[in-house]
Fold this protein.
Amino acid sequence: MSTPADPQALLRSQKIYERLLAAYPKSHRAEYGPAMAQLFRDQSRDAWREAQGWGITKLWLRVLPDLIKTSIVERLSTFNQRKTMIDKIAALFRPYQLPRHTFRAVFIGVFVLVFGASIATSFLMPEVYASTARLKVEPGEDSLFPDHSSASPAVTYDPYFIQTTFEIIEDQVVLGKAIETLNLNVEWGKKYNGGKTLKTSETMEWLKRRMNLKPVRNTQLIEITVYSEDKHEAARLANAIAQSYRNYRLNQLKQLSLNGIKILEDRWQQEETQIPKLQLEVGSLRQQCKIRFDASGPQSPEEQPYWDKKRALDNRLEFHKLLAGKIEAEKLDLMIPKTFPAEIIGRAEPGNQPARPNKPLNITLGAIAGILLASIAGALAAFIVFQLGKRMRKSPAPSAA
Amino acid sequence: MNATMVDPEKLLPLTPAVFHVLLALAGGERHGYAIMQDVAESTEGRIKMGPGTLYGTIKRLLEARLIEESNERPDPKLDDERRRYYRLTGVGEQVVKAEARRYAGIVEMARGKRLLGRPAKIAFTGI
């Protein structure tokens, strides 16, 4: 018995089952129909308590084949109960009219079952919402210090870049952080694991199953779509994953710059210790060769070692100055990056319409599949009946005894 | 079929659905939903009968007079009085016992061929 507390999906499901009982012979329906409907109602309530819409879907997946099989068995059984073989033949083989009738009966039966199943599935499946965040991703630089003055691009084309990006997004470094930010191990543990906190690896598996990554053709954009029964949760998850990937790329770039600055500073320090030694050597050579401060070039071959050394010193001083400038520029870049390796172009918003099930599509496909299968089954049944009828007309009529 | 004249052995082997329904009713009279639950519990959820299979089986068992409809009702306050209760007939009881013996024989045979282990012995500590 349905109570007012029963949800609409449950009541609809029960009504559909009651209608489908028409597949059984009248006598069987009259005797056991109400009891079967009652049993289905009891099973539906159990299934709903267990897993709501999914529970009802699973019940239908079990009950529908049972209904088809047992209704055929009962119909055959009723047919076999007819008094004599003549009765049976008379019931089955009415020349010329029979194949058409058989086709019609089988067609209607199969069509109602297939179409009914598609409608039931469409209405009983839980509604799932999708939310999409859009990210613009830039390939990483192939050297620590790209030559910006050069005409050739420092960034080379990587055909595997998008695939690599998808793998990174699905990895612990990105998904793990998103899970941590949203406290999903605890939240989903409460929701799906009887209150027991999930392991990050388990939550990641669940999240991957609800997530879809797609590149936008001929652009550097990728779409992160997340599906959930809760539209707000879907949007929250998509944004958290996009944000987590952006942070990952920024941290990676920051780390790369820090490593570069460290190398530059080490080199600058080396120069800082070498230059005074070189200055001493140049001073000493100048005194040995008695060269004036304002001299502009070698006056004699004896002065040549001094001028060579002095040129080396000038080059080192120039290089030292360049290093200091480069370090400052890199530090400035670290604080104010010129480009972002990943930018969130569009934040995910809660959807208004469920993405799944696509009811109009499912029902249309159900109708098309129903017509096709019903036509095949009807034609097959009509052919068999026609062949049997032909054989019966050729062979002598069996005696009633 | 006249059940009183039937040798239970001749009805064997029973189909799994028939055997499970008879086994469920061996525990006392039950309505359809209780039979289904009993079968699901005793098979640890491996067999979940649909309404079509259950009532088809009940119909055949009624026709064979292995079960009968019970007119006694539990306290209507405790249960829906529109439910139909079924119980084993004498022949039904004999048939389910014969089938159980047949299964026991098969199990023994399997043990003889070392396909199955011996059941664990229960230690009685005494009172």
Summary: The first helix of chain A runs from residue 8 to 20.
